[in-house]
Structure of Glycosyltransferase family 4 protein:
Amino acid sequence: MTRSPRTLWVSTSTTTQGGIATCVRTLAATGLWARWGVRHVATHRDGGAAAKAATFAGGLARVLVEFVARRPDLVHVHMSAAGSFVRKAVVCWAAYALRVPVVLHVHSGRFHLFHDRAPAPLQRVIRSTLTRADVVVALGGLMRERLARIAPDAVLTSLPNPVPVAPATRRAPGAAPHVVFLGRIWAKKGAFDLVEAWAKVVGGTAIATPGPRLTLAGDGEHDRARALADELGVGGSVTVHDWLRGDEVAALLADADVLALPSENEGQPMVVLEAMSRGVAVLATEVGGIPELVASGTEGLLVPPHDVPALADALGELLADPDRRRALGEAALARARSEFLAEAVAERIEGLYHEVLARRHPSASPTHGAASVPSVTVTDPDTRTGS
């Protein structure tokens, strides 16, 4: 007898800052949750140590109740590195013990570094956790290769992060260019490199309106960024905001000509995909999964990490040439719509669910009301969309 599916998602809270929460919210809005009977449990949220501990304890209790009382057909676990791995590994091993199929979604672009720096016993736990999952989802081909080196026997596939349909940016002709940085304001994201490059491009004195503007928004070292901009004489053209709500981020991107993200390491940054989906040119570093999203010279410009002169050269090129910015933005928009839209990613996730359940229960897979979804071959060497 067929029935509607029951699925459990486990991740950080959907109100948490960062890419995982954005990914979860985006996929939830596609109808995937409704079709697959998804219940969501948060095992982490922003806040102090006590709040985080309470969230994990309460979330784990809810997960165990779901496993025993509701018996989901599968659990989709969204994992990063470090503490996130520890929390989600507990969930995974509870599922393994109770024979609940696990889709393990690894979001961290630094997961391989977390593994390599861990002591040998923890490395064995990491490897076993990946290997026991029914399928491990990596964000792109490079991350998949890195996970394969950690756990050669794991069943691996790759999916892009999803982006919702968004109105393309349409700034007034002749408006002064606006460069936007969204993310944690600290050295690892290249925030201070960006301020230094900005000073090289706009000169040693502050640019008055209506000259080019640089906006940095996110948590982190705001005072250091402001002090550096003032020290370099560009404080008048640099604005530093705290973390913004989703609607505020959308408004900022709608006013942007360039999205700058000169990080030293990334997975598949949601902010890059969000900018692309709005037709904003991207200036980023050739690290992690970024080159799989942005072809340098086509959808944006990529430079080496922590190379301030190269960053300044690319920034100067974009500030000086509105036609160049427009062409890169249009190409970024076309690629986002063809490869990364949330509905297409949700469809591929459904294909994974069907395959996992078919392998576990060949003759008794639950059904849902959606149209038939083509399966995804998780053992294929390259499942990148568009490859």
The domain at 7-162+341-360 is CATH 3.40.50.2000 (Rossmann fold).
